[in-house]
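Just scan my protein:

——
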Amino acid sequence: MKKLITLCLSLFASFVVANAQTTIYSQNFNTGSASDWSLNTTDLGGVNNAPSGNGWYINNIYAAGPLGTVTASEPAGIVGGPSSYYLHINCGSSFSSFFGSNDNFDADGSGETYFASLNAASAISTVGYTNVYFSFWWLCNGSSDSKGNVYYRTSSSGTWIQITAPISDFFGSSAWANDSFHLAAFDGQAYLQFGFQFTNGASGSGSDPAFGIDDISVTGTGGAVTPPVANYEASSTTCQDSCISFANTSGGTVDSVRWSTTPADASIASPTGILSTNICFPSSGTYSVSITAYNSGGSNTHTGVINVNPAPNPPITKTGHVLSVPATYTSYQWYDGATAITGATNSTYTYTVTGVYNVQVDSNGCLGNSATVNTTGIGNIKNTAESFWLSQPNSSTIVFNAAQPLDEAL
C-alpha cells in the first residue's frame, strides 16, 4: 500500500508539472491607469460619453453617492483588495454627485454600448502555448438587457467574436466572481486581443452595480517553442572589393543568429549581428551566404546565392597622344595620377602634357581602374636627379642616357 501511495503521488506531481500554467499576460489596474487598454472605443458600435456620461473608467472608488449603490468590496483573491483600482462602468461627472464615481450607470434606455479592449500594440502572443485560459474577476447586477459581454479576436482588423461559454451574458451578480474561459482558438496565436462590452439596455431597466472588471490574466501550458524561420535580404548589387548590408528578416522568436559564407574569404563585420551585418567580398564569383537563427526551440538556416561581379580593369591603348579603352562601359573618368581630369569622361582621352594616366570605368554598377600609362618626355626627367646623364665614348660623339624609355621625341 505504501508503495502504491508513493507511486500515485509521483504520478500526480508529474502531471502537475507537465500541466503547470504559465502567466502570459496580467493586468490588475493597480497603477490607476492601463496604457495597454483602450477605453470607450467605437468597436462593435461602442459610443464614448466619458467623462461626463456613461462609459468605462479606472479608479478605486467603491462608495456611492446619496442615490447610488455601493460597489461590493473585493475578496481576498483580488490583488490589492478590498478596494483596489478596477475597470468599470460609471455614469460620469454629470451624475457623480448623485450616484458616485464607483461602478454604476444611468439606465436611460438608450440601448448604447460601451467597449474597452486590450489595445492592438499590446496584443498577446500565445505561440508555443496550449490550454490557454482567459481569466478575470467581475461583477454586474444589471438586467437581461443591461449586461456585460466578453469578446476576442485574432488580428487587428479581424471580427470580434463573443465568448459564450460557460457564460454568455454577465449580469445578476452584485458580488465579485472569478471565471476562466478556454477556447481552442486561444492556443498558439501570434495575435490575441480581448475586449469587454457593456450594454445600456433599451428597456431602461437594470440595477447597479454595472459591469466591473479586475485582475485579468492569460495563462497557458508551455509547449515546445517553435524554432525560428531564418531569412535575410541583401541590400544591392555585389561587386568585387565592395561591401553590402544583409538584413535579418527571420520569422518567429529569434534569440541569436550566426552569419557565414562559402568560400570563407568574405569579411563579415558582425558574424552574430542579430539585426544586420555587412559582408565584404574580395573576389568575384559565386558565394553562398547563410544565416542561422536560434531560439530555445531549435535553429533554422537559410542559404542564398550571391553573385559577385568582377571589378573591370580595362587595358589602355596608346596611339600617338590618344589614350583609349573599350567603349563598352557605363561611364568613364580619366585621371592624371590621383587627380581627376575635368571633362575627361569618354572612352578616349588626348593628352597634351606628359603624365601618369589611368581611367576609372563603371561596369553595371561595379567600378574598376585601368593600369597606368606613363607618357614620359624630357620635360619629366630634366629636373630629376640622376634621371639622365651624358657620356663621351670618343672625341667626336656625345651620348645622352635616360633612366627610362622616352615616349616623346627629344
Q: What stands out?
A: The two ends are 120 Å apart (CA to CA). The first strand starts at residue 21 and ends at 27. Helices lie at 2-18, 96-99, 378-381.
